[in-house]
Specification:
four-stranded antiparallel β-sheet; Rossmann fold; alpha/beta; globular; 7 helices; six-stranded mixed β-sheet; 2 domains
């Protein structure tokens, strides 16, 4: 977690405390992490460790209590430019069609919808939603809805993509499919990605590095470099090298009493 002068995201001594009448709740403690431009970093930890809070702080949706965050060399003050966010839930608007839900990102940023219509249609096609543009979210499965939410986040070509356990509620086959599509998108666009997950296998498969967090209050306990060749097929998960990384992470969590071996 040594400082990197070329960091796109720099998290320095970050702390987050939620005030309460029953006493302050410390969510994050002295977090330090640099994420390089174009790097894919996963944050891995148990439920309640502050992973989502960290993502909201980086997105400018939560003020930090101590420390600071820099995006592309600038101190964070509200949501950064060129940002895309995918939440655990798809957060689609049921009264809007899928196409109009995707175009909402352009409206939110003050762009003209017409200028982004073709890109929205291309993204929907890429994510297997061609033919569903005029459907409403309640007509789609959970996996299809989450695909639409990813299209919305990618619409305006963000430099920084924040993803908060976006595949956690999906079935295994859909999750695998979206893991593959996400890696194709990332490798083709050189976006900087911070991916929140509680799946060790998913973190190792997707990432250049995996930042491990302790139980709350959350703090980084280690950052693991994942030296596996890209592009990665799902079959890499069956290799000895992949198993080495998952076992190393599992053993580290077991030593802290977070997992049982």
């Amino acid at each position: 977690m040594k400082a990197n002068s070329d960091a796109y995201v720099r998290i320095s001594h970050l702390g987050k405390v939620y005030p309460s009448q029953r006493g302050d709740v410390e969510a994050l403690v002295d977090l330090n992490l640099d994420i390089r431009p174009g790097e894919f970093v996963s944050v891995l930890g148990p439920s309640g460790c502050g992973k989502s809070t960290l993502l909201k702080c980086i997105a400018g949706l939560e003020p930090v209590t101590s420390g600071n965050i820099q995006i592309n060399g600038r101190p964070l003050d509200g949501p950064p430019d060129r940002l895309g966010v995918v939440f655990q839930r798809d957060v689609l608007l049921d009264w809007r069609t899928i196409l109009n839900n995707v175009l909402l990102q352009a409206e939110f940023l003050g762009h003209k919808r017409a200028a982004y219509r073709d890109r929205a249609l291309q993204l929907l096609q890429r994510f297997g939603l061609q033919g569903f543009e005029d459907r409403h979210p309640w007509e789609l499965s959970g996996g299809m809805r989450q695909r639409a939410s990813i299209c919305r986040a990618l619409l305006c070509d963000p430099e920084l993509l924040l993803m908060d356990e976006p595949f956690g509620a999906l079935d295994a086959m859909t999750r695998d499919d979206l893991n593959l599509e996400l890696t194709r998108i990332w490798q083709g666009t050189n976006k900087t990605v911070l991916f929140i997950t509680h799946s060790i296998v998913e973190a190792v498969f997707l990432s250049d590095r995996v930042a491990m967090m302790s139980r709350g209050p959350g703090r980084f306990i280690d950052v693991i470099e994942i030296d596996l060749p890209r592009p990665r097929a799902l079959s890499v998960r069956e290799t000895q090298e992949f198993g080495h990384y998952t076992q190393k992470i599992r053993h580290h969590f077991a030593e802290l009493g977070i997992l049982q071996e």
